[in-house]
Amino acid sequence: MSDNNAKGAVAPAGSGRGISSFLRSRWILVFLVLESIFFCFRSEGFSNLNTVQMLLYYGVLVFLLSVAELFVIVTGGIDLSLGYVLGFASIVSIKIIERLTAAGLDPGLSLLVGVAVTLLIGLLPGLVNGALVAYLNVPPFIATFSMLGVCHGISELVINGVYAMGLPKLASDIGAGHFLYVVPGSSSSSFFQRPEVERGTAVLEIVPNIVVVTAIVVAVFAFVLARTRFGRHVYALGGNMDAAIRAGIPVKRRLLGVYALSSFLASVAGVVYAFMYVSGKADAGASLLLDAIAAVVIGGASMFGGSGTVGRTMVGALIIAVLDMGLRMSGTPTFDKYILVGVILIMAVIMERYIKEAA
Amino acid sequence: MDGESAAKDKEGFLGSGAGRFLAMNWALCFLALMLVIFSLTGQNFLSINNFQNVVHLQTVPFLLASAETFVIITGGIDLSVGFVMGLASVFAAKLIQVFLASGMGVDAAILLSVLIALAASVIPGLVSGFVITRFKVPPFIATLGMWGIANGLALKISQGYPMAGLPDKLPGIGNGYLLYVLPGRFVSFFAKPDGFPDSRIRELWRLVPFSLPFIIAALFALAFALKRGSFGRHTYAIGGSMDASIRSGINVDAHLVKIYVLSSFLSGLAGVFNVFQTGIGNYTTFNAQYEFFAVAAVVVGGASLAGGKGRIWSSAVGVLVLAFLENGLALSGVLPFYRYIAVGVLLVVAVVIDKLFPDVR
Amino acid sequence: MKKTVVAVLVVLMIALVALPGFSQAKPRILFMPGVADPFYYTMEKGIKAAAAKAGADLVVAEYPKAWGPENQIPILQATIARGKFDLLLIAPTSTDALKAPLKAIYDKGTEIITVDTFIGDGDYSKASDYSFPLSYIGSDNQLGGKQMAEQLAKLLGEKGKVYCQATNPDASSVQDRVKGFTAGVAEFPKMKLVGVEWCQDIQQKAQEQTLAALQKDKDIVGIFGLNVFSAQGASQAVVNAGLTGAVKMCLWDATLDNIASLKKGNCDLVLAQKPGEMGTLGVEWGLKYLKDKKNVKVPKKVIPGFMFFTAQNVNDASMAQYIYQ
Fold first, then answer.
1. Which residue, among B282, B289, B339, B340, would best test binding to C if mutated, counting the most C CBs under 10 Å from its CB?
2. Homologous superfamily of C26-139+275-305
3. Residues 6+ apart with CB under 8 A from C167
4. 3-state helix, strand, coil in chain A (%, to 5)
5. What topology does CATH give the domain B24-163+211-355?
6. Could you say which of A132, A185, A313, B164 would form a disulfide bridge with C257 (CB–CB 3.0 to 4.6 Å)?
7. Are B327 and C212 a contacting pair at CB < 8 A?
8. pTM across the whole model
C-alpha cells in the first residue's frame, strides 16, 4: 500500500531545522490545535475550561480503546471484540459490586474488589483471542469477530433484558466527581467533595477523577510500548514476523500478551463506563470501536503493523472528539454533521500527506 | 487458495486427492458439513423453500462481499459499502417518486431511475479512489470518510424516513419466482396463477427466485474478471507487491481507482436491488454494519487482509457459511443470545481446522 | 503548487464548517432526542410547530447514532454548554445513567420534561432522587406490548402460535414491549409465543429471522413486529412466504410503509404512538409552567396513548395525522 509509515518506522522525529519542520512532522498535532482554535470562534461556548474537561471526560472510553487497538494494530492484527468486551466488563463489574454491597460489604471495599475481579476476568477474552491468533493461526479478524459474538451473547444472557444496575452512590460520586471544586466569588473550595450550594449558583469543577485515572493508565501503557523490551518486541512483530523469530523474540507469547493487554484495557474502559453511567449493557462499547480504530489510523499507524505511538493515537482520538464536539456546539444539523465529519477527516489526512511530502 | 502446485508434493492424506480438495476448499466442505448436520438437528431445515429463502436474502451480502473481495485483494478495505448501498437505495427510490409525480409511466420511471442510480453509484468510488491514489490517504480513512458522507447524503435525501409509495411492481419483481408449480396439477411461469387462493399458498412449490439467476450471473461475471484478463492479474499483482507492479509497468493508480469504483458500483447495485426486494427506499442504519459482515465473509472465504489472495466464489461461500450458521442454529432451536456464542465458536472451529492444513493453500 | 493546494484546502475547510449556521439568538428550548429514527424525527416536527406557535426559540441537539447513554450524554452536555436553556425536552436513553446529569442541569436552573422514556421508574410524584423533572410524557411500552397481544388474540380467536420480531435488546423501550407482549400472550392459555428474535434495526435481518421462524414452526399464525424496521422486515417476510392472510400481522410504528402494508392487506393492525403529540404537549406544558411557576401544576405523568390503525379506519382523514411522516 502507498503508506509511508509501513514496515519499520517507529516515531519519525522531526528532521531538518527549525520550527517549520518541527510543525510539519507533527502535522496532526498542529491540525488539532488549529481545529480547536477554529471552533473556539465558530461555536458558542466552546472555549472554556468546562468544555475542555467535557471533551476529555467523554473521550475517556475512546482513549482507552484506541490504546488497546494500537497495540494490536502495531502487531499487524486487529481486535474487533473490544467494544463488547467493554460492555461485558461494565456488566460484570456492576453485578459483582452489587452483590458485594448487598451482602453487607463496605461500599468502598466492594468497589475495589469488584473492579479488581472484573479486570482479572477481562483478561480472558484477550487470552483466548491471543491463543487463537498465536497458536492456532486463526486470522485476527475472525478470532476477534467471533469473540465479539461470544461476549455479546454472554452479556445478554447475564443481564436478561435489564441493564445492570445497583451501584452504590460512592461509584457515581467517583465517576462524576472532580479533584477540586471552587465556588467562585466565595472563598470555599474543597477536594473530592462537591460543596452544597443553592440551586442556580455556579461551581467550578476542576479535573474529573476519571480523566486522571485514564491519563495514568494511558501514560503507563505509552511507557510500555515506547520504552520496554515488550514494547520493542511488539513493534518487531508488526515489522517483519520472520525477522522477529530469527532475532529470538518469543513471538507467540508476545502476541498472546498483546491481545490480553488490549482486552484488559477494554475492561478498564468497561469499568470506567460503569462508574460514569452507573449502568451496564452489552453493547456499551459497540459504537466506540470504529472511532478507536480511526484514531489509531489518523495518528499515523499503518494497518499492516510496525508503526504508531500512543501519543499520536491520542492526538488522533482528540481530533475526532474535537470535531464531534465542535460541530455539535456550532449547531450543525445532524445529517450535515455526518457529511462534514467525513469530509474534514479526509481533508485532515490529505493535508498531512502534503505537508510530509513538502518536508 | 492458490497453492496448487505445492499441494501435489505432499504425502499421505494431504497429498491424496480427497485431502487436497478438502484443504483447498475447506470453506465449501465446512458449508456442506453444516448443511448435513443442520438437516438432522434443524426443524424443516432441509427444504427447497428454506434454501431458496436464505440464498435470496443473501443477494445483497453476495454483492457487498464481492465488492470487498476486489478491494481486499489489493490490500485495501472499503468501509463505505453499507452506506453507499443505502444511498443508492434512497436515491433510486427518490428518482422513482419524482418521475412518477411528473407523469411518467411506471415502467419507464423504474427503468430510468435504476439506470441513473447505477450510473451515479460510481461517484463515491471515484472520490475514494482519487483520494487514496492521488493524495495517498489510507483506504481505511478514505472509505471511513465516504462512510459518513454517504450516510449523511442518504439521510438528507430521505429525511430520515423509509421511502414508501413506490409501485407494487417492484417487490413483485424483487421477490418473484420463475416457476410456480402445484404438484400434479400445473406449472406457471413468472407469476402465481390468477385466482389462486392465498389460503392454499403453502401447497404451491415456488422455484428459482428471480434473484438467483441475477446473482449467479453477477458472480460469474465478477469471477471471470478476476481470474482471466489483465484486470484480474493486475489486481492480484498490486496486492502482492505494489512496487513490483509499478516496475512491471502496471498503472497502479488508475487500477486502484477502478477497483474502488467497482466496489462502489456493486454497492450501488446492491442498493438498487434492495429497492426491488423491499419495495421501499431504505437508508442503512448504524447498527447494520454490512461492511463488517462483508469483510468477514471474504476472510472466511480465505482471503487475507494483507492482500494478494481471495476469490469471488470463495467469498460467496463465506457469505453462505455465515448465513447458514445463523439459519441452521435458529432452526435447530438455539435461542438468539446462545446463537451469538455458537456462531462465534463454530466459526473459529471452522477456521482452526482450515489452518491445520498448512502449506496447501 | 503544493502550498497553494494546502491553502485552498484550509480555506475550504473553514468555509465548510462556517456553512451550516445557526442564528446566535438566545436559545430557550432544547430537544434532546433518543436516537436517529423516524419516531423522533416526527416528534421533532411536533416540537418545532409548537415552539414556533408559542414564539419560543428551539435548539435540536444532534441525534445519537445508537441507543444508549454513552451516545446521548456527550451530545447533551455539549449542547447544554452552548448557553442557557429554560426548558429541556429529553428522551432519556437510560433510566439510571441520566439521573445525575439531568439533576446537574436542573440545578443550574433548567426545567426538564422527559418525553417518550423516563428516568428512575417514571413516577416523579414521589420524592426521590429523580423527582425533579416536571413531567413524564410518553408511551407505556409495556402496556402497548400487552395491548398488541390482546389485539392479536382477538384476530386469532385466542389460539395459535405467535412470534415476536424485536430489534435491539439493549433499548429499554424495546425490552418493555417484549415483556408486555409476553405477559399478554401468557394470559391466553391456547396461545403460545414460540420465539423472540432481535434484528438490531436491520430490516433485512428481520426478514431473515422471520422467514426462519416461519420455516421452523409452520403453524405460526400471528406475528408482532415491534418497531419500524422489525415490522417492515417481518411483514415482508410474510409476503415473501406467500402467507399473507394466513398469518396475522401486528406492526408497531405507523410509518408510510407500514400503513401502505395495511392498505394492501399485508398486515392487520398498525399501532401508532403519538410522537408529535408528545412533543407538542411537552412544549405546551413546559412553557405554561415557565410563565407562571407558582400557580401552574404540571401533571407528573401524561400518557397520550396509542392509536390503532386497522383496515377499517386506515383511510379516515382523522387518522392521517398519526402517520409518521
1. B282
2. Response regulator (3.40.50.2300)
3. C174, C198, C199, C200, C201, C206, C226, C227, C229, C230
4. 70, 5, 25
5. ABC transporter involved in vitamin B12 uptake, BtuC (1.10.3470)
6. B164
7. yes
8. 0.89
